[in-house]
Amino acid sequence: MKKRKLDIKPNALELFGIRRAPFLPEHFERTDILKDTSVYSSESDIEEWILNNTHGRYFIKALVFDKIIVGFEEPKEMSYFLLAYK
Predict the structure, then answer these.
(1) Percent of the chain beyond pLDDT 90?
(2) Which residues, in sequence order, are CB contacts of 30 under 8 Å at separation 6+?
(3) Is the pTM of this model over 0.85?
(4) For the chain, how far is it from start to end, CA to CA, in angstroms?
(5) Average confidence score pLDDT of the chain
(6) Is residue 6 part of a domain?
């Protein structure tokens, strides 16, 4: 019987618990999302999508006035998020 090799690559940012940024740094790409017009209804839905589909650092914060701020360190991850989100 042959053993299968798993292609799992650990993410060092998740391992050390630093993938989600506690504040929005200036060098992050940023976008604002209105909750009432979004496909995803909450911050947790968006964060789940980010964790499943991206690999870099990110920032997410839900504001009181029906707005969610999302930021990515890698510009290409922001592009991917905006294309998949719309």
Answers:
(1) 41
(2) 24, 59, 69, 70, 71
(3) no
(4) 46
(5) 84
(6) no
